[in-house]
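Supplementary Methods. Inverse-folding protocol.

Structures were first reduced to a C-alpha coordinate string of length 150. This string, shown here, constituted the complete conditioning input.
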Protein backbone atom coordinates (compact mmCIF):
# COMPACT_ATOMS: atom_id res chain seq x y z
CA UNK A 1 0.00 0.00 0.00
CA UNK A 2 1.33 3.41 -0.95
CA UNK A 3 1.83 5.87 1.88
CA UNK A 4 0.21 9.29 1.41
CA UNK A 5 1.48 12.58 2.72
CA UNK A 6 0.56 16.26 2.44
CA UNK A 7 4.12 17.60 2.40
CA UNK A 8 6.42 17.84 -0.62
CA UNK A 9 9.68 15.94 -0.20
CA UNK A 10 12.99 17.68 -0.87
CA UNK A 11 13.18 15.78 -4.16
CA UNK A 12 9.76 17.03 -5.29
CA UNK A 13 10.57 20.58 -4.15
CA UNK A 14 13.73 20.52 -6.26
CA UNK A 15 11.85 19.11 -9.26
CA UNK A 16 9.25 21.90 -9.01
CA UNK A 17 11.97 24.57 -8.99
CA UNK A 18 13.16 23.46 -12.45
CA UNK A 19 10.15 24.87 -14.39
CA UNK A 20 8.68 21.41 -14.91
CA UNK A 21 6.00 20.20 -17.26
CA UNK A 22 2.99 19.41 -15.05
CA UNK A 23 -0.67 18.67 -15.64
CA UNK A 24 -3.34 20.62 -13.77
CA UNK A 25 -6.65 18.80 -13.36
CA UNK A 26 -9.86 20.67 -12.59
CA UNK A 27 -13.60 20.13 -12.88
CA UNK A 28 -15.33 21.91 -15.76
CA UNK A 29 -17.30 24.91 -14.51
CA UNK A 30 -20.36 24.08 -16.62
CA UNK A 31 -20.80 20.33 -16.50
CA UNK A 32 -18.36 19.14 -13.82
CA UNK A 33 -16.48 16.83 -16.20
CA UNK A 34 -12.77 16.32 -15.54
CA UNK A 35 -10.31 18.55 -17.40
CA UNK A 36 -6.55 18.41 -17.80
CA UNK A 37 -4.23 21.22 -18.89
CA UNK A 38 -0.46 21.45 -19.07
CA UNK A 39 1.13 24.38 -17.25
CA UNK A 40 4.72 25.47 -16.67
CA UNK A 41 4.36 28.53 -14.41
CA UNK A 42 4.26 26.65 -11.13
CA UNK A 43 6.39 27.24 -8.03
CA UNK A 44 6.58 25.60 -4.60
CA UNK A 45 5.74 28.41 -2.15
CA UNK A 46 6.59 25.94 0.64
CA UNK A 47 6.54 22.19 1.20
CA UNK A 48 2.78 22.49 1.81
CA UNK A 49 1.75 25.03 -0.88
CA UNK A 50 2.09 25.43 -4.63
CA UNK A 51 1.58 28.63 -6.59
CA UNK A 52 0.80 28.77 -10.29
CA UNK A 53 -0.15 31.36 -12.88
CA UNK A 54 -2.70 30.94 -15.65
CA UNK A 55 -4.33 33.17 -18.24
CA UNK A 56 -7.05 35.05 -16.35
CA UNK A 57 -9.33 34.90 -19.42
CA UNK A 58 -9.07 31.11 -19.76
CA UNK A 59 -11.60 28.36 -19.21
CA UNK A 60 -9.19 26.97 -16.62
CA UNK A 61 -9.62 30.13 -14.55
CA UNK A 62 -13.42 29.78 -14.72
CA UNK A 63 -13.09 26.15 -13.61
CA UNK A 64 -10.99 27.11 -10.59
CA UNK A 65 -13.37 29.90 -9.62
CA UNK A 66 -16.31 27.47 -9.70
CA UNK A 67 -14.67 24.51 -7.96
CA UNK A 68 -11.35 24.95 -6.13
CA UNK A 69 -10.46 21.25 -5.75
CA UNK A 70 -7.48 20.49 -7.99
CA UNK A 71 -4.86 17.88 -8.74
CA UNK A 72 -1.39 18.48 -10.15
CA UNK A 73 0.36 15.58 -11.86
CA UNK A 74 4.10 15.90 -11.31
CA UNK A 75 6.57 13.76 -13.24
CA UNK A 76 9.40 13.06 -10.82
CA UNK A 77 12.55 10.94 -10.95
CA UNK A 78 11.36 7.34 -11.31
CA UNK A 79 7.70 8.03 -10.64
CA UNK A 80 4.59 10.14 -11.13
CA UNK A 81 3.07 11.98 -8.18
CA UNK A 82 -0.51 13.24 -7.88
CA UNK A 83 -0.67 16.33 -5.68
CA UNK A 84 -4.21 17.10 -4.47
CA UNK A 85 -5.44 20.28 -2.86
CA UNK A 86 -7.59 23.38 -2.68
CA UNK A 87 -6.71 26.35 -4.88
CA UNK A 88 -7.58 29.96 -4.17
CA UNK A 89 -6.91 33.01 -6.28
CA UNK A 90 -4.24 35.21 -4.68
CA UNK A 91 -4.22 37.82 -7.40
CA UNK A 92 -6.43 38.28 -10.46
CA UNK A 93 -3.70 40.15 -12.33
CA UNK A 94 0.00 39.76 -11.57
CA UNK A 95 2.03 42.97 -11.43
CA UNK A 96 4.99 43.30 -13.79
CA UNK A 97 3.62 40.86 -16.37
CA UNK A 98 2.63 42.15 -19.84
CA UNK A 99 -0.77 40.43 -19.91
CA UNK A 100 -3.40 39.39 -17.39
CA UNK A 101 -2.38 36.29 -15.46
CA UNK A 102 -4.20 35.07 -12.38
CA UNK A 103 -2.06 33.67 -9.57
CA UNK A 104 -3.42 30.76 -7.53
CA UNK A 105 -2.16 29.20 -4.35
CA UNK A 106 -2.87 25.53 -3.76
CA UNK A 107 -2.90 24.18 -0.23
CA UNK A 108 -1.77 20.56 -0.51
CA UNK A 109 -4.13 18.07 1.13
CA UNK A 110 -2.44 14.87 -0.05
CA UNK A 111 0.29 13.53 -2.30
CA UNK A 112 0.07 10.05 -3.78
CA UNK A 113 2.36 7.98 -5.93
CA UNK A 114 0.42 7.59 -9.20
CA UNK A 115 2.84 5.22 -10.96
CA UNK A 116 1.35 1.83 -11.73
CA UNK A 117 2.60 -1.16 -9.76
CA UNK A 118 5.83 -2.57 -11.13
CA UNK A 119 6.54 0.44 -13.31
CA UNK A 120 9.20 3.12 -13.15
CA UNK A 121 9.31 6.41 -15.06
CA UNK A 122 12.56 6.27 -17.07
CA UNK A 123 12.58 9.81 -18.46
CA UNK A 124 10.95 12.95 -17.08
CA UNK A 125 8.99 14.70 -19.85
CA UNK A 126 10.58 17.87 -21.14
CA UNK A 127 9.18 20.63 -23.31
CA UNK A 128 10.73 23.20 -25.58
CA UNK A 129 9.74 26.77 -26.30
CA UNK A 130 8.59 27.18 -29.91
CA UNK A 131 8.78 30.96 -30.06
CA UNK A 132 11.49 33.55 -29.41
CA UNK A 133 13.66 32.04 -26.63
CA UNK A 134 14.77 35.45 -25.32
CA UNK A 135 11.18 36.65 -25.10
CA UNK A 136 10.16 33.40 -23.36
CA UNK A 137 13.00 33.68 -20.84
CA UNK A 138 12.09 37.31 -20.12
CA UNK A 139 8.40 36.45 -19.66
CA UNK A 140 9.23 33.45 -17.44
CA UNK A 141 11.41 35.70 -15.27
CA UNK A 142 8.59 38.24 -14.93
CA UNK A 143 5.96 35.61 -14.12
CA UNK A 144 8.06 33.69 -11.58
CA UNK A 145 9.10 36.92 -9.84
CA UNK A 146 5.44 37.95 -9.60
CA UNK A 147 4.34 34.50 -8.36
CA UNK A 148 6.91 34.60 -5.56
CA UNK A 149 5.75 38.08 -4.48
CA UNK A 150 2.00 37.29 -4.64
Amino acid sequence: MTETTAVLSDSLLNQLKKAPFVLLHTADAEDGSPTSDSISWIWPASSEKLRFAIDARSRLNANLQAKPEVCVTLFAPGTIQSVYGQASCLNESLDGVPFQLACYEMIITSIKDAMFYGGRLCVIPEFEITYDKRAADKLDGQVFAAIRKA
